[in-house]
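Here is the promised in-class demo. Please do not try to memorize the tokens; focus on the logic of going from shape to residues.
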């Protein structure tokens, strides 16, 4: 009896192991529907970047050069050692490798990649900014990031002949700094706010317009940061253009099986879709709140902040007409956006650990385990459902993500500080 029992135990053990590790059949022939879906993810399907009507210098080459200079300049911070590039480092696909970003102090969020981001209608994990130029203004004045302010920045540019010249060519002469305090901002500490309130309204406007122009130049630079063709894209293109037998060498069997899961059983493609692997929308995926923080309200609060932002598309510093601000005017703001965050791109995701809005998840193996378990959300509800993937399937899904990694299509001159 005992012997029989142990045989049964052994058999059950092998059955479970086989179920976990035996590879499922590889889709040698994709259905037409699957082919269309795979093709829709290919970088070749990425349309040219749309105009940004709120930024009239968005595609001006000189603006991109001024933006690049500002992006890498550590003088744009109160301790002269923080630049945009400190956290969005080109060598790490414009991330920093940290769980929580660190500028003048440690902040509450993880640094997202900027690759392909200009295609997004919303910025920040909660989408509280509706343009890339308006986003670029916030870190400059945030006390844990650059901790400088718009008046200090005006003094800095006025003291630098290269900046003064470039700015004048794009936007007209810099405003005069005579009669301005050394430091002032409506968003700063009480000293900066008092100084700001003591300025007359005309000067406040002039300074804020100057400030918005800096954001517009930085955004022009960021529009250069675009992904390059990966092995997955080559596979997708070949799938469309030639016979199924040829694709064998581009992706391994495990990677193809992972792709099959990505667009099928694992349902990743329902949010991570289009050539940038994001639907640019907001979802609650049950990621734990950052340790020591209450769960955030996410997009529910983000859209309300965006509507009240003086630098939004409808504001006086935008170059757009109100009719052009479609995203902002028609954005959803319902209760189901509580705890919802922006779907990030998965291009180059193998190079940008750790993951999620607070860097809560260290590795892709654990990210996939998170989706497989689909834990209950602390606030509102997790939209993703448990997947029931076997160990071998989880590994295949992970190996597929490696096929999305490739050098950027951005010209090398944009990937470091400008040579003087
Ligand atoms: C101290 C590190 C740090 C610095 C410095 C910094 N950022 Fe960021 N950046 C972050 C973090 C963290 C977030 C996400 C914050 C959030 O969503 O609340 C972010 C978000 C962004 C986003 C939105 C990304 C998305 O997915 O929507 C853009 C664009 C961006 N930063 C550009 C810049 C620019 C331009 C500068 C310089 C003016 C800059 N950042 C300076 C850390 C930094
Ligand atoms: C319901 C929409 C949705 C589905 C389905 C979904 N994701 Fe996500 N994904 C998101 C959102 C939103 C985030 C950001 C969540 C956060 O930061 O808390 C994210 C984050 C990620 C990240 C981290 C990226 C980074 O840069 O931090 C990876 C990797 C990822 N998802 C892979 C997958 C895979 C693989 C699947 C399929 C098993 C999947 N996702 C299914 C919406 C989704």
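The designed amino acids, position by position:
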């Amino acid at each position: 009896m005992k012997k029989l029992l142990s045989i049964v135990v052994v058999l059950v053990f092998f059955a479970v192991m086989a179920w976990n590790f035996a590879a499922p059949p590889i889709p040698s022939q994709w259905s037409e529907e699957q082919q269309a879906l795979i093709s829709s993810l290919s970088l070749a399907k990425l349309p040219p970047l749309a105009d940004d009507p709120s930024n009239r210098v968005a595609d001006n080459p000189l603006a991109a050069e001024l933006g690049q200079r500002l992006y890498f300049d550590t003088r744009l911070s109160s301790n002269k050692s923080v630049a945009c590039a400190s956290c969005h480092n080109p060598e790490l696909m414009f991330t920093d490798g940290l769980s929580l970003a660190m500028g003048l102090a440690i902040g509450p969020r993880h640094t997202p990649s900027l690759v392909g981001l200009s295609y997004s209608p919303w910025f920040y994990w909660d989408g509280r900014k509706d343009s890339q130029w308006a986003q670029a203004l916030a870190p400059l004045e945030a006390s844990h990031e650059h901790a400088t302010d718009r008046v200090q920045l005006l003094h800095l540019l006025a003291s630098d002949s290269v900046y003064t010249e470039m700015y004048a060519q794009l936007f007209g002469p810099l405003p005069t700094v005579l009669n301005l305090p050394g430091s002032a901002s409506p968003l700063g500490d009480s000293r900066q706010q008092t100084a700001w309130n003591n300025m007359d309204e005309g000067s406040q406007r002039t300074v804020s317009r100057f400030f918005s122009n800096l954001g517009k130049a930085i955004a022009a630079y960021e529009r250069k940061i675009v992904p390059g063709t990966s092995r997955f894209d080559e596979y997708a293109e070949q799938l469309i253009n030639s016979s199924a037998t040829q694709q064998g060498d581009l992706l391994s069997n495990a990677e193809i099986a992972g792709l099959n899961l990505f667009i099928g059983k694992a349902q990743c493609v329902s949010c991570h879709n289009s050539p940038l692997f994001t639907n640019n929308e907001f979802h609650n995926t049950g990621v734990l709140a950052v340790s020591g923080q209450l769960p955030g309200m996410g997009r529910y609060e983000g859209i309300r902040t965006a509507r009240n932002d003086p630098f939004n598309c409808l504001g006086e510093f935008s170059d757009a007409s109100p009719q052009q601000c479609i995203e902002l005017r028609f954005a959803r703001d319902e209760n189901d956006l509580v705890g919802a965050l922006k779907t990030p791109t998965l291009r180059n995701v193998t190079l940008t650990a750790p993951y999620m809005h607070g860097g809560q998840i260290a590795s892709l193996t654990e990210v996939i385990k998170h989706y497989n378990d689909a834990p209950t959300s602390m606030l509102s509800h997790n939209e993703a459902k448990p997947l029931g993937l076997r160990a071998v399937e989880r590994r295949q899904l992970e190996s597929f993500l490696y096929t999305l990694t490739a050098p950027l299509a951005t010209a090398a001159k944009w990937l470091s500080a400008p040579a003087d």
